[in-house]
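Help needed: design a sequence for this.
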């Protein structure tokens, strides 16, 4: 029965399906590479903008914050970028201004009241 026309058609369909799946996989890899390249380019632009508007000490302080609290550091970076793009930064942000900015953006600390009976 291995030489019947139905078996041949079935094998032909399997072969076509495999080719389609391989084509899709290759296309997905290209999309992934494009996304990664765009992401790297956006990161490079962000770093260039930060270098342009922050002094070395302010960048060091921001990097230290990012190492300890990554999400908060990202938030501060986004705020600095937004200020730079809107033209509200006059000159460069130095370490003292960075301290003030961090203080303003710092989330409120949660306080707990413990009552004893």
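Sure. Designed sequence:
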């Amino acid at each position: 029965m291995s030489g019947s026309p139905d078996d041949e058609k079935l094998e032909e369909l399997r072969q076509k399906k495999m080719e389609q799946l391989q084509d899709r996989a290759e296309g997905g890899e290209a999309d992934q590479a494009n996304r990664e390249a765009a992401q790297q380019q956006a990161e490079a632009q962000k770093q260039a903008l930060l270098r342009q508007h922050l002094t070395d000490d302010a960048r060091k302080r921001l990097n230290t914050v990012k190492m300890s609290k990554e999400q908060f550091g990202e938030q501060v970076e986004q705020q600095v970028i937004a200020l730079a793009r809107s033209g509200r930064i006059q000159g460069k942000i130095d370490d003292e201004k960075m301290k003030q900015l961090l203080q303003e953006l710092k989330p409120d600390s949660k306080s707990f009241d413990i009552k004893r009976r």
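The CA atoms of residues 8 and 36 lie 42 Å apart.
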